[in-house]
Amino acid sequence: MSNNIEAFGDLVFGLPVMEARLSEPTFESLKKTIDSGTALDPSIADEVAEAMKEWAMEKGATHYTHWFQPLTGSTAEKHDSFIFPDFKGGVVTQFSGDELIQGEPDASSFPSGGLRATFEARGYTGWDPSSPAFIKYDSCGATTLTIPTVFCGYNGEALDKKTPLLRSMKVLSEQTVRLGKLFGIDCGDAMAKATLGSEQEYFLIDADLYAQRPDLIRTGRTLFGKPASKHQQLDDHYFGAIKHRVAAFMADLDKALWESGVLAKTRHNEVCPAQFEIAPVFETLNVSVDRNMITMETLKVTAEKHGFECLLHEKPFAGVNGSGKHNNWALAGPDGKNWLSPGDNPHENAKFMTIVVALLKAVDTHADLLRVSVASAGNDHRLGANEAPPAVVSVFLGDQLTDIIEQIEAGGAKESKDGGHIELGVDMLPKLPRGNTDRNRTSPFAFVGNRFEFRAVGSNQSPAGANVVLNTIVAEAFDYICTEIEAGLEKGGEFNAVLQKVLAGVIKEHKRILYNGDGYTDEWIKEATEERGLPNLVTTADALPVLQTQKAKDLFAKYNVLSNEELESRYNIYAENYDTLIEIEAATAADIAKTLLIPAAVMAINEYASVPAVAGLTDEMSSLTEKAVAGVKALEAAEGPAAQIEAMGALRETIDALEAIVPAELWPLPSYDELLEV
Ligand code: ADP
Ligand code: MG
Questions:
Q1: Which CATH superfamily is 169-562 part of?
Q2: How does pLDDT run across 412-444, given as a tens digit for each residue?
Q3: Which of 198, 282, 341 has the most ligand 1 atoms within 8 A of CB, as the residue to mutate?
């Protein structure tokens, strides 16, 4: 019997297909570009394009698209068919190397944040050979050859999320290779590659109920709704048996993802009823980001087929858990090994500890940038809501590793907790717990045995932004540490002694970022901000100005990840986007209250008016309705996001109280109880 796994990669123009369909020199040249990031040889483009087209047409494709990730946060595509007139009344098909390498969508409507005047509408898409092309079955069944691309302005200004991601991977590779050389690892041209596995949480609700909630349709979240009587209190959903209808959806989802080359691995029920998670096997960072975007899209399309709506918003329902996207990040060195795995010998362990210490420096120096990289109106509802890490960024290393860090700071060579001795580069580390032994879920940035897990990313966000920051700040920390070691060696120092001294210095300066306790407590927030001086940027509005600091400008410019102008344009786009989103939420809330919910309350009041037995309820509804009318007025008068958020909150409280007494059959919106039952 065949199974869905056999179809893995069927829709991907990956290395095996390339090898089978391209001439040997063309394949070798393309493979070199993919593996070591060397410039693409344009003379091979025609052959590659022709092979792609032939392959795609055999799979039923009629169109191709340059697929890119504009700053709107989702993906964008414009389809062109392969047809070309034969001038005899028929058509031939063609797809040239030029068309493969570069596209020119009319880009005037994509946000550029002032980088490009709209009259200069041009934006260019450029093929990213490091992420394989694939065929996408869209909802109408037509098939399109989808080519991952970057999206830039006329002078190469980044207008997308992928360009800085690739730039940040390059600088991280350079600094990693440099660090490797200090540890005697020289692998020629080979690049170091950051790796990513992003666990994706989502909600599924019934499509018919979704269609009755204008708030969900317009804003992705419920703006009203009294709490369900049974939600996650009993913890009976997490890892529970998966219901048939959902299991059928998941099977279909996995099938579609596998065909698209996504390494879908883990699926399970999440904490909240109607909430689920899918996690892939990790891959090279940029490919993994692309595949997370494919996953998000496939979730939506597959849900539709099964009569569900998939909600990717970070907080679709108040009062229950929201959805995140745990960002599992590690670093494969030029030797292909994971350098965040504790090694098998003292030398490897010294390298491992160097990287851990560099991470501390990076996160402490730029906690504010990590925070802003996950800032969004949706994620604001989640961070710090006792279900997700707080807005204060700290690092969890676990007791054992923290102990080792403290020993290095104190000068090395001391008793470790389990009785061993540690001298950098000389002694073995005590055996560290690997994998998922850490269950401290309250830390935003946790070491989990062979990788760091950044847990503050929102479910609806592209993982690109967080990883641009992560790559760049780690590159900067490596740069600093390498420079210091090189200087020490120059002065004739012995390697391990120099390393010990450099790391001790870094630890001293940055250990305030280490925290192994419960990140959800108020005491921690107090300690973090008052005693340790860590930033606590509670909302997106608080966080966005970080992009305008000199520190941020200098960092991104120094490593050629984003020029000052590019960074400024991002600030403009994100700030405007935030204001607009809140504006839409406010308008939607006022509209729903006025045209659906207040009228429902009035109907109920009328029905009850002649029944003395319910006079108490009638009075309560009347006074709440009056309050709701005033609440709508206040919301409509509110200006700016902060005032609008506050007014929405106040109106919601009144409306939810109304929902609790208005007869259910008069209430026009499906309730939380109904929505969360799938
Ligand atoms: P948990 O929920 O316990 O964190 P999961 O298995 O759901 O565990 O998710 C772990 C994620 O971490 C997976 O996507 C996995 O592939 C990823 N991962 C494992 N090793 C690495 C690595 N070296 N680099 C990046 N991601 C990794
Ligand atoms: Mg995890």
A1: Glutamine synthetase/guanido kinase, catalytic domain (3.30.590.10)
A2: 655 544 544 467 887 777 777 665 555 678 899
A3: 282
- What is the CB neighbour count within 10 angstroms for residue 210? 19
570-603, pLDDT tens digit by residue? Answer: 999 999 999 999 999 999 999 999 999 999 999 9
Cα–Cα–Cα angle for 216, 290, 105, rounded to 5 degrees: 85
Atom of ligand 1 nearest to the CA of 277: 7
Quote the CA–CA distance of 62 and 136 in Å, as a whole number: 11
Q: Whose CA is nearest to atom 17 of ligand 1?
A: 197
Task: Give the model confidence (pLDDT) of 86-136 as tens digits.
Answer: 999 999 999 999 999 999 877 677 778 777 654 455 789 999 999 999 998
| 450 Cβ inside 6 Å of ligand 1 | yes
Query: What span, in angstroms and rounded, lies between the C-alpha atoms of 678 and 243?
Result: 8
CATH of 4-159, one of 3.50.50.60, 3.40.50.300, 3.10.20.70, 3.40.50.720: 3.10.20.70
Cα(45)–Cα(65) distance, rounded to whole angstroms? 16
Tell me what pLDDT residue 417 has.
47
For ligand 1, whether the C-beta of 196 sits within 6 Å is yes
Assessment of whether the complete model's pTM goes beyond 0.90: yes
Instruction: Give 172: exposed, middle or buried? Use CB within 10 Å, 0-12, 13-18, 19+.
Output: buried
Ligand nearest to the CA of 338: 1
Average of per-residue pLDDT across 309-320: 96
Q: Is 333 in the pocket of ligand 1 (CB under 6 A)?
A: no
| Three-state DSSP class for residue 124 | strand
